[in-house]
What does this fold into?
Amino acid sequence: LAVHIQTSRALMVISLLLGFFGIIVSVVGMKCTKVGEEDPVTKSRIAVAGGVLFILSGLCTLAAVSLYATQVTYEFFRESTVPVNARYEFGSALFIGWGAASLTVLGGSLLCCSCPPRERRGQQYYRQSQPSTAREYV
It folds into this structure.
């Protein structure tokens, strides 16, 4: 195969692996799961790490699809003996790839926004439980 196809294939495999690990890390970092630390600050940092993995995955996908699109454009406008109706054009897979890369980067960015504010990073949150007899009903 041509070099640009092998490079695109390698970038897509790397993107899939980063996305897979991003899913695992993000699930561990969600506030609704009981996996890992109970500290919300640590959970938020784990979620941010998952978001970074998703952003890297989206950038790898974007690079792979754009590299292939560049090669298709180069082949289309190159002076050759191939007739115009037999040349490659952008297919739906390229547009789906660009859309998937955009959504993956957007999702990773939203996960990165879950980082706690700087002034609350050192605080611990504890729920105070009171016995039911100590509560006053008004």
Remarks:
- Residues 24 and 73 are 37 Å apart (CA to CA).
- The first helix runs from residue 3 to 29.
